[in-house]
Design brief:
By secondary structure, the protein is mostly helical. It is built from seven helices and no strands.
């Protein structure tokens, strides 16, 4: 069973939440990253926010992927992953990291974020004034802890 841990069935809907943080204007590009530290977006461009989130997730891969795997296991999404994580968490994380190597390329991020931005709903936009605070977190552990509750909302429903 393919369980594409990174993009399918989780990140696309979850990142729609992040992208919704600042609406869907036609503003230009995401804020630059200075000195290797993520900076929050200053525009309301949904795609730019999405790209920032994906880029930050990539920057924080060592913290982000294990947290994502654990969250997926907590809600057993996709079905069966809880048992797989219980049996071999390190193996599931290794597979997720392999998938993430492809899913986190600039081209993949751009395509995914264009798709997300095109499909935002009003419900997606209801909850995310604080995503900017997550993006402003300089420490990867703090950033990951900040963003995981947003992902979790998608699983809890």
């Amino acid at each position: 069973m393919s369980r594409s841990l990174v993009l399918t069935s989780l990140l696309v809907p979850a990142l729609a939440l992040f992208a919704a943080a600042c609406g869907t204007s036609d503003a230009a590009t995401p804020a630059p990253v200075a000195s290797g530290k993520a900076q929050p977006a200053s525009t309301g461009d949904a795609k730019a926010i999405c790209v920032e989130v994906f880029t930050r997730n990539r920057t924080c891969t060592a913290q982000y992927i294990p947290a994502l795997v654990d969250l997926r296991a907590k809600y057993d999404v996709p079905a069966g992953i809880a048992a797989e994580v219980a049996a071999d968490r390190a193996g599931v994380i290794a597979q997720a990291n392999q998938e993430w190597a492809t899913d986190s390329t600039p081209e993949a991020i751009d395509a995914t974020c264009a798709n997300i931005a095109a499909k935002l709903t009003p419900a997606d936009q209801a909850d995310f004034g604080s995503v900017q605070a997550c993006l402003a977190q300089q420490d990867c552990s703090a950033y990951t802890s900040c963003v995981m509750p947003y992902f979790e909302k998608r699983f809890a429903h």
